[in-house]
Each structure stands twice: as C-alpha cells, then as structure tokens.
Amino acid sequence: MTISSGAGNLSVQSTAWSVVLAGGEGTRLRDYVERRFGESRPKQYCAFSGRRTMLQHTVDRGAALASPARTITVVTQEHLRWARPQLDGRGGELVVQPFSRDTCAGVYLPLAYVRARDPGAVVYVLPSDHFIEPERRFLDVVASAGAVATCRPSRIVLLGVEPDGIETEYGYIEVRRGRDGIGEVGSFVEKPDRARAALAIERGALWNTMIMAGTVEAFWQAGRETVPEIMECFDHLVDAIDGPAERPTLDAIYRRLPRAGFSHDVLGRAADRCLAMPLAGVEWSDWGRAERIEQTVARLRRAPTRRAPEPQVSAVRTA
C-alpha cells in the first residue's frame, strides 16, 4: 500500500498500524514548561518551535507510516484537556488510561486495540516526546524497520542512535552488529552512570530511542514471557473491545494492574526477542532537559529547515 502525505510517499504494509505514546508526565521539565507556557503540562503537549506540538508532530508521523484510521494515541485521563483539542481534525483513535500505571501498561493498552481488530498487524510504536529532524528521512528508516519486522515476525525491531557523547539519562542497547546493519540485541543498559555509559559506547552500544516496529504477536509474546500477570489483564480487555463491556473491563483491570516499565521489565528480560538498527541520518533527542531544547531551537532559528506541511485528515475517535 502506498500513501501520500506531507512527509513524502512511503510504501508500507497494508496491515501497518501506528501507536503514539503520550502518557508521560514530563516531571523533569515541569518548571521550565511552566515558565514558558504559564502552566505545568507534559512536554508532549508543548510547541517549543513552530506551530505543532510534539504530540501533533508524532501523530502526523504515525499517520504517514500507517494511515490516520490506523493510528492510535494513548493518553491518561488527566491529559485530555490538552490532548483532545490538539488531536481534533487529525484522525485516528484516542485511547484513554484511567490513570498511569507506568510504561508497560502505556504500551500494551493501545496494542490491545490493534490486537482486537487486526491480530496480524505490524505496529510502529512512537513516543511523543522526541525531537526528530528531518522527518522524511526518519519515516524512511522507520518504514524499513517495519519491513524487517514483517520478514522476521517473532522479533521486535528497535531503532537506536549512534552516541555522540556520554549520556546518563538515556538507555543503551548493546548490539551484536550484523553485516546488513541489523543487529541481535545482547542486553539493555538503563540510564547508567558515566563509567558504565562510556564502557557501553566503547562496545558499540546505541542510545535506545524506544521507537519500535514489530508484529502484534511479537509484542504480545514478549509480554507473556516477562509480565504474564499484566498480559492476562490485557487478554481480558482484547475480548471486550468494541463491545458493551469494554469500558467497565478497562476500568477494572486498571484497578488491579501492577506497575511495570516496558523497557526494564519487558525488553530487558526479552533481549533475545529484539533486533536493533541504527536511526542513521536523523537528529534525535528526547528533549529531557531544558538546555537541549534551547540549544536545538536556537540552531533551528539560525538555519531554518523546510518543514513538511501538515496532513489533512479526519476527526479523532475516542475510545
């Protein structure tokens, strides 16, 4: 299937879906955001440069990779006052967590909706709090990861960035590199100290962007192996989706759902199910510190780039 958008023409699988993760609280930037925007809000709902917020940029990328109708955005209930107006007119589906139960639930809740409707799908998972430039190159690389996931349907494909320095706020992927640039994941290193980060870089590790592609089944099996109690809850939700019991079931499982982090508790325990490929030719940052944002915005003002126009898509559906 070929789709046309402001990000160019992409050839993608007809079963591709995009999941946009927008449930983070952005606590590290709370004071900075409040000074800039007059209120405390998570960074994904902020437009630090240009007219689009980080969430809107990410949803537009997701729609370019799959389609607006196959793009699902997950937020928490308390974020609706920002999310609804920002997603109005962008299409796709808004799935609302009653409250945050950490990143494992944040990933598997939208995946449950894809599994209920299209269990053979390939899914792109896109965090909404990243700066990415240029978008056309980014979309090409992510689509390539989707093609790898299609050919290797039991694996989760992660995109990593070649480090340009020691970062203790990023996770690292230690990779056994293949000749085609796609590597088997040896292990994950979560936010190491400087000495451990330097050692990981020396061994050829990549920064973990948490941008992923994989079949629904690959994600589901990784969860069943590592967090079976959580997956049992989401299996019940899959059975209830699009029926009268959907919302009561969602509310009930969130009342008993244990907290777990997707990176630590799923990927870290299922590294043998993961592949990694470099996000080459793309500037990437999670904009977790005010200094990173200010430096990037200042550079963009000095050397403006051509921005892709915003795609025209239909209204958002709320689950």
What do these coordinates show?
- This protein has a single domain, classed as Spore Coat Polysaccharide Biosynthesis Protein SpsA, Chain A, CATH 3.90.550.
- Helices cover 39% and strands 23% of the residues.
- Helix 4 packs across helix 7 and helix 4 packs parallel to helix 8.
- The N terminus is likely disordered.
- A five-stranded mixed barrel has the order 8-11-9-10-12. A two-stranded antiparallel ribbon has the order 1-2. It has a two-stranded antiparallel ribbon with strand order 7-13.
- It has 319 residues and is an alpha/beta fold.
Q: Please give the number of β-strands.
A: 14
Mean pLDDT: 89
* Range of strand content: 15-25%
Biggest sheet details: 5 strands, mixed, barrel
User: What is the class in the CATH system?
Assistant: Alpha Beta
CATH homologous superfamily classification: Spore Coat Polysaccharide Biosynthesis Protein SpsA, Chain A
Low-confidence segments, ≥5 residues, pLDDT <50? 1-9, 304-315
> Rg, please?
18 Å
Strand order of the largest sheet: 8-11-9-10-12
Please tally the helical runs, counting DSSP H or I stretches of 4 or more residues: 11
Q: Assign a percent range to the helix content.
A: 25-40%
Number of domain units = 1
State the order of secondary-structure elements, H for helix, E for strand. EEEHHEHEHEEHEEEHEHHHHEEHE
Give short descriptive properties of this protein.
14 strands, two-stranded antiparallel sheet, Spore Coat Polysaccharide Biosynthesis Protein SpsA, Chain A
